[in-house]
Amino acid sequence: MNDYVLKNNLRVLRAKHDISQEGLAEKVDVTRVTINNIENSKWVPSTVLALKIAKILGVTVEDVFWLAEEKSNTVG
Q: Which neighbouring-strand residues pair with 70?
């Protein structure tokens, strides 16, 4: 069975828009730590938060987030 993980382009898109983690966090009403955790794939945002982030950055959700197949470490 294939497993998937959520990947993101958030750090790159923030840089293109010259917006800090703190600045984005304020605009979407979360903490800077939340933005950092999303960027480092430690936390998966809610649908609403993902939509807010995309809207602030002027892109689609798919431009920010996508599913990537995770390779299994099991031998079978």
A: 3
CATH 1.10.260.40 applies to domain 3-70: yes
Report pLDDT for 1: 64
Helix H or strand E encompassing 23: helix 21-28
Tokens 């794939």, located at residue: 41
Q: Angle at Cα 41 formed by Cα 38 and Cα 44, nearest 5°? A: 60
Domain boundaries, the chain: 3-70
Q: What is the pTM (predicted TM-score) of this model?
A: 0.86
User: Could you count the other beta carbons within 10 Å of the beta carbon of residue 61?
Assistant: 15
Q: What is the mean pLDDT of each run of 10 residues along the chain (76 residues)?
A: 90 97 98 98 96 98 95 60
Residue 64, CB half-sphere, CA atoms under 13 Å: how many?
27
